[in-house]
Design goal:
Layout: H1 2-13, H2 24-29, H3 38-45, H4 50-55, H5 60-75, H6 84-91, H7 96-130, H8 134-142, H9 144-148, H10 153-157, H11 175-188, H12 194-209, H13 214-232, H14 238-252, H15 257-272, H16 278-281
Helix pairs in contact: 1-3, 5-7, 6-7, 7-8, 8-11, 11-13, 12-13, 13-14, 13-15, 14-15
Length: about 280
């Protein structure tokens, strides 16, 4: 009885904003579900109300964003309509920390919602995060493979054209961003065809192999060696042959000693990881 009265008080105290395209009654019905007490959900949804940041907690929107995947899991994908507006409000919040929180969990939310809702409701938000501040972009980058593997092949291929944009950061000294990109590209090799790898991932990998920071280069050597392995196993042998020829031309015959050293390290990684049979390597 005490809990009921508390929830009744919370429900009455909630000052929820309404979408101008719906009447108050339609807005209320769009957020009705039967999994948790409705008053409790209403209170959670009210956390995006700007007045709450002034009267309750300045970081209340961030707390709301942090909890959203758990709330979505509890309600189930059939009740996503209750959370969709709140999610979009948080995704466009003025505070980058709120958007960053969502960026780090969007791949988990995609698993909860399934491919259809992800394509319709999460992909536009994901695309927005890709153009955001580095503090937000790192969230989607760290789980890039986890998110892209949930998309249909055609939709996944659309992101091939945008991967190169991760090489550009707000701060060029942010080498950990490029290191994370190299790590993710290794995982992405399993999601794309040999032609896509050669056309789109190869130029990025070669660029990372020439990075100014040693830690980035070492991860990139692993990336190139895995690329060699993947292309060697492809049905079209020309890709791996062209890749190896470019490695020789770009690094082995480089006029700088650092480029020639890069070639040696890539060869070392290829042999250590058995990416090529020894007769092919020779």
């Amino acid at each position: 009885q005490s809990m009921d009265s508390t929830l009744h008080y919370i429900h009455n105290d909630s000052d929820l904003s309404t979408n101008s395209s719906f009447s108050p009654e339609e807005e209320r019905k769009s957020k009705v579900q039967d999994v948790v007490p409705q008053a409790l959900l209403d209170q959670y949804l009210s956390m995006t109300d700007p007045s709450r940041a002034q009267t309750v907690d300045t970081e209340i929107a961030k707390h709301c964003a942090y909890s959203l995947p758990g709330v979505a899991l509890t309600l189930g994908r059939q009740n996503w309509h209750c959370l969709k507006d709140t999610y979009e409000t948080l995704a466009s919040d003025m505070q980058w920390k709120v958007r960053r929180t969502l960026a780090f969990s969007i791949h988990e939310l995609a698993v909860i919602l399934g491919d259809q809702l992800t394509a319709g409701d999460l992909v536009p938000v994901f695309n927005g995060f890709l153009k955001d501040l580095d503090e937000v972009r790192i969230g989607v980058l760290k789980h890039l493979h986890d998110f892209l593997k949930l998309l249909h092949v055609d939709k996944r291929r659309e992101y091939l054209y945008q991967l190169q944009e991760f090489l550009v950061t707000d701060n060029s000294r942010n080498w950990r961003f490029r290191a994370e990109l190299a790590e993710q590209l290794i995982l992405l090799l399993d999601l794309y065809s040999a032609k896509d790898i050669y056309d789109y991932l190869r130029p990025i990998a070669f660029s990372l192999c020439a990075d100014k920071v040693s830690s980035v280069r070492w991860i990139s050597y692993k990336l190139v060696s895995e690329m060699v392995k993947k292309l060697f196993m492809a049905s079209t042998p020309t890709f791996v042959v062209d890749l190896m020829n470019e490695l020789v031309e770009k690094f082995c015959r480089c006029h700088k000693w650092s480029g020639r050293q890069t070639f040696v390290f890539i060869c070392q990684t290829i042999t250590e990881d058995d990416c090529l049979p020894m007769d092919q390597f020779a």
